[in-house]
Design a protein that fits this description.
By secondary structure, this protein is mainly alpha-helical. Helices cover about 55% and strands about 0% of the residues.
């Protein structure tokens, strides 16, 4: 059973979130350098990327026997710390810095590619699903927060369409007005002869329909009424939208924003489907029972994403909420960190305490580092 820690409350100051961000990025950089150093040292000595470790581990240690496995664990651990650090920046101000999340993609893809080619069993392949889940939740977060601005823009554009529609109809109605009748003839001083009663009777009988031929609604008038702005559809109860012929101009950014939203939705859907193939509740229960218990026997709720300490190995967790809510990325990172520790315990994985140290100015060997960029665009 997980340990139930005292609740911190959702009033954590921004300075504390900033400190967590700095700590996460510091650890992530160490883990990243260590992982790539182990990979470089594992190459044959004739390989162009071979670089021996300055202080190689004891040949009997797990880090020597399972050097590439340790490197993969450090890569995943590093990525989770980078992502959690950026999530802290987002959460502290309740926004989504979209520019920051775009810097994660390359690191994530390289790590996933390495795991896909080297993972050996279902337990390790669960990390592939974890990375797909991280990707899906990043897209979900970006989509949810971008949708607010797009929905506002859509409302403005729709209102302009309705105004344009109304103006078009008013112009059309004005153009269809009959020209004014000619002026009446000048009065004739000689009185005209009155028509005979018979001719008056016959003329009246030709227009003897009710209301002088105007008692029935003209079909064209009914169709026109159906197209008028503000007319409500009797079947749906909704106001009829302007017809496709009514158009207003849009700029390039308007199209790009909606293209981004559409492609992001497709990417989130694809990554979520990929994630569930190797990481799901049965897989968690079978291969990560400790992490599973920390989520299943939790008293936390979906809104308590701020509560756990990311360095707590025994506290409560929560199975991530739906990506479409825009939230849950913090839960995914916390779950992933717990999975890394549970998996690594069997091999003596020590996390940041077992990394290959980096000398000042030493090359980071690739894998571009994610960056915090305070921009919501």
């Amino acid at each position: 059973m997980p340990v139930r820690r005292p609740r911190r409350g959702d009033n954590i100051p921004n300075s504390e979130w900033d400190a967590i961000y700095e700590e996460c990025f510091t650890k992530a950089r160490k883990l990243r350098f260590s992982a790539l150093s182990r990979v470089a040292a594992a190459h044959p000595s004739t390989h162009k990327e071979y670089k021996p470790l300055r202080n190689p581990p004891n040949s009997n240690s797990s880090y020597a026997k399972h050097s590439l496995l340790m490197a993969r664990l450090e890569l995943v651990d590093s990525l989770l710390h980078f992502v959690y650090g950026l999530w802290c920046k987002d959460y502290s101000v309740r926004t989504c810095y979209r520019a920051s999340w775009r810097t994660v993609g390359e690191y994530l893809q390289l790590t996933r590619r390495k795991l896909t080619s080297e993972a050996h069993d279902d337990r390790e392949k669960a990390f592939i699903g974890l990375l797909c889940m991280v990707d899906a939740y990043i897209h979900g977060r970006k989509l949810r927060y971008q949708a607010v601005a797009i929905d506002r823009e859509n409302t403005v554009k729709y209102n302009r369409l309705v105004i344009q529609w109304k103006a078009d109809r008013e112009r059309a109605a004005a153009a269809a007005q009959p020209s004014p009748p000619p002026p009446p003839p000048q009065p004739n001083p000689t009185p005209n002869m009155l028509p005979s009663p018979a001719s008056s009777s016959s003329a009246g009988s030709s227009n003897s329909t009710p209301l002088g031929g105007h008692g029935m609604l003209n079909n064209n008038h009914a169709a026109d009424l159906d197209l008028q702005p503000g007319v409500v559809n009797a079947l749906t109860g909704q106001e009829r939208p302007p017809p496709p012929s009514v158009q207003i101009p849009v700029n390039t950014q308007f199209i790009l924003d909606r293209r981004s939203q559409c492609s992001g939705l497709l990417a989130a859907s694809h990554q979520a489907q990929s994630a569930q193939q190797t990481l799901n509740i049965p897989v968690m229960a079978r291969h990560y029972p400790r992490t599973f218990a920390r989520m299943i026997y939790s008293s936390l709720s979906p809104q308590d994403e701020h509560e756990p300490d990311f360095q707590d190995d025994d506290g409560e967790l929560f199975w991530p909420t739906q990506a479409v809510t825009g939230e849950g990325l913090g839960w995914v990172c916390l779950m992933g960190m717990a999975m890394v520790k549970e998996f690594g315990k069997e091999y003596g994985y020590q996390g940041v305490h077992g990394v290959v140290p980096r000398l000042a100015g030493e090359d980071m060997l690739g894998y571009p580092e994610p960056q915090f960029i305070a921009s919501i665009r």
